[in-house]
Design a protein that fits this description.
Elements: H1 3-11, H2 20-27, H3 31-38, H4 46-60, H5 64-67, H6 83-101, H7 105-127
Helix pairs in contact: 2-3, 6-7
Amino acid sequence: MTFSDVLIEITGGKDPLCTVSDVAEIMRKETSTVYGYRSARQQPNWDDAVALAKWLIKEHDYYRLALQTLFVCSGGSINGRIDDEILSIMEACVKMRKGFNSDNKAVFENGFGVLTSAVENLKAEGDQI
């Protein structure tokens, strides 16, 4: 997932986590610069990306940007790599924690379902060894 993909995910769709203006404020940039990041015409510097990652964790329990430094993920289930499954497992654990801490059984169970699927995919990757 690229930085552009992350920005599209957090600022787009029907239920965005934040706006492009929010991102610009956190990163101390103009909105036009953030749109440049979003369209992949530009890339942020490290400190600005870290500031956004920290804010996303604190405000939204969103770890995908922060975890990008650990893995270079490519989508898919059984693709000869395990980075995407490990990232999915970490994200599922965050969902489960969020559901548990807020006494929201549906969120917890959703996270558990994602975890189960990711572990099954990880096992399938291991079976190819």
